[in-house]
Inverse folding.
């Protein structure tokens, strides 16, 4: 931990996909700040919660849930609010970047991809803003990707959702700004999670991608945590409707 955000201590935080990949690092990062963390995931995360409790003396609240089941997702968020108080920091992190080609996509796959990568984000935001309005404000961080900014082929349904996340973030930032609710997006570059290493990382692909980066180090999940904490904290209290890129310098904005 390189920085302490004092206002995050005791804050009620809800993370989708918070038990693996980038999400697990986010859960740990918020716990280190003293936040009350609840998260959902499809796979059992009991072992991860045991590890966090052993390391930090506090246990995150894990609720097993498929985020494409919107009533279950909302029920999980309500359970988290009952346990920790109104959610004032929501991190929409869960996503699936399964590779596919345009000519192979049918309606079922399209709907599945959008349900995970966009639809669940919207309805998590919808549920969160109710409590945030009553609490006097909050911060929502939506994870997108630089994939759509690069115009990458190989997963068009995913990049479509990525772009949609940014449009949604900006619209909701405008709508709920008067309620002191901030919405921002984080666009990571190629973060070398265990899943990425197992499925997509080859020496050739990694070399090509690093050639595009200004900074020649690979990105790990831990490199995304600081930006997320900053956006959840009042340190960024006048920042909303923005997309923060953390990619080692592949794409540029502005």
């Amino acid at each position: 931990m390189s920085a302490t955000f004092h206002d995050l201590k005791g804050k009620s935080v809800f993370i989708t996909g918070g038990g693996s990949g980038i999400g697990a690092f986010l859960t740990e990062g918020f716990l280190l700040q003293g936040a009350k963390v609840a998260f959902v995931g499809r796979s059992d995360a009991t072992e991860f919660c045991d590890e966090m409790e052993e390391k930090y003396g506090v246990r995150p609240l894990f609720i097993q849930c498929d985020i494409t089941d919107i009533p279950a997702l909302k029920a999980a968020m309500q359970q988290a609010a009952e346990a920790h108080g109104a959610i004032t920091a929501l991190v929409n992190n869960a996503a699936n970047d399964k590779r596919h080609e345009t000519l192979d996509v049918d309606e079922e796959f399209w709907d599945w991809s959008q349900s995970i990568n966009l639809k669940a984000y919207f309805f998590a935001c919808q549920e969160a803003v109710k409590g945030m309005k009553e609490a006097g404000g909050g911060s929502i961080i939506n994870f997108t990707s630089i994939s759509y900014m690069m115009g990458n082929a190989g997963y068009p349904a995913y990049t479509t959702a990525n772009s949609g996340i940014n449009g949604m973030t900006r619209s909701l930032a405008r709508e709920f700004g008067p309620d002191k609710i901030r919405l921002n997006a984080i666009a990571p570059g190629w973060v070398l999670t265990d899943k990425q290493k197992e499925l997509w990382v080859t020496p050739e692909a990694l070399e090509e991608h690093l050639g595009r980066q200004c900074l020649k180090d690979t990105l790990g999940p831990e490199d995304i945590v600081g930006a997320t904490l900053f956006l959840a904290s009042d340190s960024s209290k006048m920042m909303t409707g923005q997309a923060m890129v953390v990619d080692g310098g592949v794409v540029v904005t502005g």
The chain has one domain: 7-189+222-245. The beta strands are 12-16, 36-41, 61-64, 89-92, 138-143, 181-188, 243-246. DSSP finds nine helices and seven strands in the chain.
